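Morning. Coffee machine broken again, so started the prediction first thing and wrote up yesterday's gels while waiting. Chain of 295 residues, entered below exactly as on the submission form.
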Amino acid sequence: MPDAITRVGLTAKRGLEAASGVLAELAGWLYARDVQPVFETETARLAGLPAGRPTVSRDNLPDECDLLVVLGGDGTLIGMAGRIARAGRDVPILGVNFGSLGFLTEITLAELYPALDATLAGRATIESRTMLAARTSREDQLFADHIVLNDIVITKGALSRIIEISVTVGDAPVMRVRADGLIVATPTGSTAYNLAAGGPIVHPAVDAMVLTPIAPHTLTNRPVVIPASSEVHMRPIMEGNEVFVTFDGQAGFPLQPGDLVSVRRADRPMRIVRSANRTYFDVLREKLKWGGDNR
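Came back before lunch.
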């Protein structure tokens, strides 16, 4: 954490009218503590900020604050985590859940002010979450690069047959998977698409990434957990099929024959403010009904 938090960025899910009153109240709460609220432009309109007040774009918000408060669901938080990573900042995120699931935006409205007070006072638990950096090469030139919190997914088009993907970890060939696709997930992303595809739940403190085939043609192609220090290279064997790559489900594009997608651990982790009222396993039980209730 910075020595003192003097600027708190405020952003909400686009069109989240339910957050308007909370935003206005939150801004007043911060002003009363000599902390400057910094509104993202669209969020300022939700809050009813008077015209002419300075605001900041979503892309530039990480450069203008010491802490970021996100109101919405996990998708909103994931988008801001990517922006923080691209800005090269270490701004922590406090996510407030307005959605129905909320693995990452786990702090409830009732917990907002106690969590924020603890964060400003330096008492809150700030957890680091591994992020992945993906580079797509085309004709031996860098074509695109992305930083993700959850996963990189290579998948077939809607009308395509099973696709084949050559996978190498470092210089070691690992597999040629024939499947509907392949997921490379972080521990944070292990409870997202990876879990739906039959991959394992990986505790976020584990320094690892997961390779999970999607509906593999060969049943022995099972998910594998590898060190986060690995570099994974994936080259689809096109054979006339449409193949796409997506990044955290928020960006993507069709791949072309010969394209290479390489994935490694990003230089910086995401830093997230954890709720003081529940553990990671509590979140699994609440959100997934995982493991039953052992209390």
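Residues 7-129+269-288 form a domain with the Rossmann fold fold (CATH 3.40.50.10330). Going to sketch it on the whiteboard this afternoon.
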